[in-house]
Structure formats: structure tokens, C-alpha cells
Design brief:
Blueprint lengths: L6 E4 L3 E6 L18 H9 L4 E2 L8 E7 L2 H12 L4 E9 L5 E5 L24 E12 L9 E10 L6 H8 L13 H11 L6 E9 L6 E5 L4 H9 L18
Parallel strand pairs: 4-9
Antiparallel strand pairs: 1-2, 2-4, 3-4, 5-8, 5-9, 6-7, 7-8, 9-10
């Protein structure tokens, strides 16, 4: 039986899914052994070609929009390029993060050795802006690092620019890396969550995306419920009342 992905929106021009973590959007040299890709799965599921319009990292779950024609893909691409939209992400981070903070920290473009072989390496840092809001905090009686207790925060992230790995790099910049981030985080905390809570992988999810439709100009409001592992941690830490109930709906494919 073909694999089905959760479709959260569909019309004559666009389709949006709730992408599971660990799934590539399209074929990439980064993971040449992979055989599952969101674009191919959606194409087979709805019976028509789809076109990418934005990026969502393999370990990140949540809202992924695909166009149903090249023309609409270009229009949606312009919306993302101009950042004429609002994105919301949810992240579980190390430490007690500030109640609110805006990080205005330029980022040098990160290159992948496989997919960016021909990319310029002398480009200056690009402007990058993110708004963060702490929704909940906790202190656990475990000595994970050098302190007798360890602290974590649930953070809502609103990127105002679209740089590669922007949220992960900005949270690391303010010393609150995302749990499960193998590149920008801290292994001892990642292992603690895996061993103590059976929770592995990047704890970052694209929960909401709001924009005006590229064809009809009507508002489109997309919400992607969190994966089971994230919902389980929210209940474990008594944080489930800190997020909209729409983010806690069961993560089931139709």
C-alpha cells in the first residue's frame, strides 16, 4: 500500500502537507542512499506533478507547501523570497531562554560539500532576523552537564528572513541550542533526552504558515500539528497548555 502523508491544505494550485521529521523534500546528494522523498510521495498520493517552493530541512517536521504548476511555483517562490508571509516554529531548547528576544545577527551562508560544490565561498554575511518568545520553562533534577540541575525552554520562533538553518544558528548564538541538533547543539543534552525520555531527533517543528494565496489573493492559514514525540514531551513537562490546542491534534495520515 502506498505511503500517505498528512495533507493539511489542497486546492487547484497548491497542496500543503505536514512533513514528518527525517523525510527529505526532494532527492539530494546529501543523502544519496535515501529512497523516500516528500515530493515523490505527494505526487503519487494525489496523482499529479508537484513543484517545490521553499525549503524544510530533513530533520524538521511541519508545514511544507508544494505548487501544482511551474507558474504557481514561481509566484509562491516570490512570496518566500520577499518574505511576504508569517512563519511560526516551535523549538525545545537548552537553558532558560529570555521571555522575548529579537536576534539580529547576520549569517554567513552555510555550504554543503555535495550540493554546494560550485557555490561562492567569499560572500559576505547576510542579514538575518528572528523573533523568539519563551512559552514555558522547566528545571529538572538531573546533573546533565556541570550543574546539579538542568533547564530547558519551549520557544516560539518567528523568522523574519529565510537564511539556511537560521533558527538553529540564531538559538545557538544566544546560547540556547535546540535539543537534538547534532551540528549546532550539545551532544550530552541530546543523549539525555534520548536516554531519559526516548526522544531523539531535532526538536523543531514548522507549526504555522500564513500568506495570501498567489492566485486568489485570499488569506491562507496553514497549521501542522506536532509529532507524537513532541506532544509527549509537552505533556511530560506539563507544557501542553502553553501552545494552541490545534498544535496538539493527533499526527495521523488521512
Amino acid at each position: 500500500m502506498p505511503e500517505h502523508l498528512p495533507i493539511i491544505y489542497r486546492d487547484d494550485y497548491l497542496v500543503a502537507i505536514n512533513k514528518p521529521s527525517g523525510l527529505l523534500v526532494h532527492r539530494s546528494e546529501i543523502d544519496r542512499h535515501e529512497t523516500r522523498f516528500a515530493m515523490q510521495l505527494v505526487r503519487d498520493q494525489i496523482g499529479q506533478h508537484v513543484f517545490p517552493v521553499h525549503r524544510l530541512d530533513k530533520p524538521t517536521a511541519g508545514v511544507l507547501v508544494l505548487a501544482l504548476s511551474a507558474e504557481v511555483a514561481k509566484k509562491m517562490g516570490d512570496i518566500f523570497f520577499l518574505h511576504d508571509l508569517e512563519k511560526k516554529y516551535l523549538a525545545l531548547v537548552r537553558g532558560h531562554a529570555p521571555a522575548t528576544v529579537t536576534v539580529d545577527h547576520p549569517l554567513i551562508e552555510e555550504h554543503d560539500k555535495y550540493t554546494d560544490k560550485k557555490a561562492r565561498t567569499d560572500k559576505p554575511a547576510q542579514a538575518a532576523l528572528t523573533e523568539f518568545k519563551t512559552l514555558a520553562t522547566i528545571e529538572l533534577p538531573f546533573s546533565v552537564d556541570k550543574y546539579p540541575c538542568t533547564r530547558y525552554s519551549l520557544v516560539e520562533c518567528k523568522p523574519k528572513t529565510g537564511r539556511k538553518h537560521q533558527l538553529r544558528r540564531h538559538l545557538k548564538h544566544i546560547s540556547h541550542p535546540i535539543i537534538g541538533d547534532a551540528k549546532h547543539g550539545k551532544g550530552i543534552h541530546n543523549r539525555f533526552f534520548q536516554e531519559q525520555f526516548d526522544c531523539s531527533g531535532l526538536m523543531l517543528s514548522a507549526t504555522e504558515l500564513h500568506f495570501n494565496h498567489p492566485v486568489t489573493q485570499e488569506p491562507v492559514n496553514l497549521i501542522a500539528p506536532l509529532e507524537e514525540k513532541f506532544v509527549r514531551i509537552l505533556h511530560k513537562f506539563n507544557w501542553h497548555n502553553s501552545v494552541p490546542s490545534s498544535w496538539l491534534e493527533p499526527f495521523d495520515a488521512p
